[in-house]
Amino acid sequence: FSESADATSPLSKQDEDYLLQAVEQAKHGLGHTFPNPAVGCVLVQEDTNAVVGRGFHPRSGYPHAEVFALLEAAGHVPDGVAAAQAIVANDESSPLVAQVQKLLDIYSSENGSDQLFANALAQAPVTAYVTLEPCCHYGKTPPCAKALAIAQAKRVVVGFRDPNPRVDGGSVQLLQDIGVAVDLAPVGSPAHQACHDLVTNFVKRITPDELRTGGQYEWITGAMRMSLRSKANRIKRNAAAAAAAASKDEEIEIVKEEVGPDVIEEIAWGGTKIDMEGDMEESVAQIPLPPEWMEHVDNSLWRDEMVWLRLSRAGRKKKLVHLLGTKIATALEAHVAQTLGHAVLLYRPGVPPVMDLELMLQNYKQKKAEKQKIKQAKTDQYFKSLAAQEEQER
Description:
This protein is an alpha/beta fold. 48% of the residues lie in helices and 11% in strands.
């Protein structure tokens, strides 16, 4: 990735405005795209400043924002945003869904980009405003950078460079190499910040972290797990006590946590019930993890580092709860700190960390030692009293 590809220059006020319009399109996909980021795209004809296409990424596994904007610009759909919204709604009875699905099937086929978008933007100079650097790799769908090039976009303005190792400036270089002008929003500009805010958690997920270690967590000791469980259960007891006091219109003093959050969210399973008739491991392996629900859990973990998952809606067997909890943890690169009945406690260190596990462990050991000391004092007092009573009876 060359220095020239990484260079940024101040954008015009008009560029900033169109990028912010792309941000607004991206927001239509927020909460639906896990594990992908929310992305928006606006295509603008330079000589008239007319918006000729808009789109956003609707769901993982479907084409990205640029493709939906190109579908509109090429005349395949009247409104790229409406086409993406149809995918989000997933109404199989909708004629629009059927139409869009046919177009997407063509796009995903060999030479699909050429069939749909060849020279679609060649009649007049068009700038593509994209909140995140277009992809340049083949995944579940063809690369967006290629689609923009085939359509003959004259210029691409990128709000935020994609740190994904499979992209990471590669699309900028690809487009520049074939003569497409590329500008990146300067770091710290309003448009750059708005585009960054859209993908904050996505960037955290794909950035290697020695604490998450690919979800292995070999560094967590049994004592650390106990300190996590102790904290989570103490917070749960405090919440129950506070709720009971509130129901009686009473006040209760809750001691604030020394380390980390004072509240841990409890999230009920948002997917379908799992078939208990067949092989349980196979059933859990095949069950889809709802993206909206996973986005919720992911956000909660980044905020608090711990979350309780209530999985009884998936099934009542403890083995199922363990298997499903492990599958969810793997998808989120989280650690199963405890399985209790039909509940699973997940832990994942934040960026930056919210809790200091070493300090938590130190506090846990100190409190455990204090409890042991009190217990021993009570035991000593009991035997002392018993000995005094026996002495009196003599």
